[in-house]
Amino acid sequence: LAVLEKTAAEAKDAAGAINALYTLDGLNRLAAAVVEAALAHREPGVRRHALRLAERRFGENKTLLLTVIKMVEDKSAIVRLQLALTLGESTDPRATAALAQLATRHGADEWLNDAVLSSLGGRAGEMLAALLEEPKESARVRGLVRRLCTTVASRRNAKEFSSALVRVARLENRDFQRLCLSGFRAPFKSTTTVALSKPAADA
Asked: Helix 110-120 and helix 93-105: axis angle, to 10°?
């Protein structure tokens, strides 16, 4: 096992490292620490597979999620795409914040935006809030913000929808504000009633 662990973390050959990782996983002997080491491998393919294997091990190692989050700066587009999917397996608020960073820094990548959206689950409102905290940054991902607004409206969750409306009402950029409102309206094809909080109704 020691040889496999060393190969997984240090082998220059990507195929060899990946095979070692999955062999250890198949034997149920793949430790979170080995996965964490593989996340720093020089080959993007190894890092991508290490991310997939990290998903079931966030609870085994306190530093694993932190290591994964730091990969928002990874130079490989395929690794960043897998990172977006992997972060969706964690409900930790830091994972949502990392998804927001991915979106703002690499917003031109439509595949990445799709992966971010698919990873949010019921956290669309939280993601929208994180993006709207920095209006200048969120302006880079206008399409994603509009889709998030549509998702929030579609969920018909009064508390989430009210919170989102209040945040949008506070935006100074009127053009961006209109973009968000168009996203909110998109799912309402007919007369629909959603109970709003008083601040949201006043906004």
From this structure: 160
Alpha-carbon distance values, 72 to 25, 125, 203 (Å): 25, 21, 35
| Residue 79 confidence (pLDDT) above 90 | yes
Integer angstrom CA distances of residue 174 from 136, 147, 168, 177, 193: 13, 18, 10, 5, 25
How far is Cα 181 from Cα 146, in angstroms, rounded to an integer? Answer: 8
Distance CA 41, CA 79 (A): 12
Q: In the chain, count of helices (H) and strands (E)?
A: 14, 0
Please tell me the distance from the alpha carbon of residue 95 to that of residue 84, in angstroms, as a whole number: 9
Q: Side chain identity at 177, as an amino acid letter? A: Q
Q: Does this model's pTM top 0.90?
A: no
What pLDDT, in 10s, does the model give residues 134-149? 777 777 788 899 999 9
Shortest CA distance to 129 belongs to which of 84, 163, 99?
A: 163
pLDDT digits (tens, 9 = 90+) for 96-109: 999 999 999 987 88
Contact, 141 vs 179, CB < 8 A?
A: no
Helical (H) or strand (E) element with 142: helix 142-155
- CA–centroid distance for 189 within its chain: 29
C-alpha angle 2-41-63 in degrees, rounded to nearest 5: 80
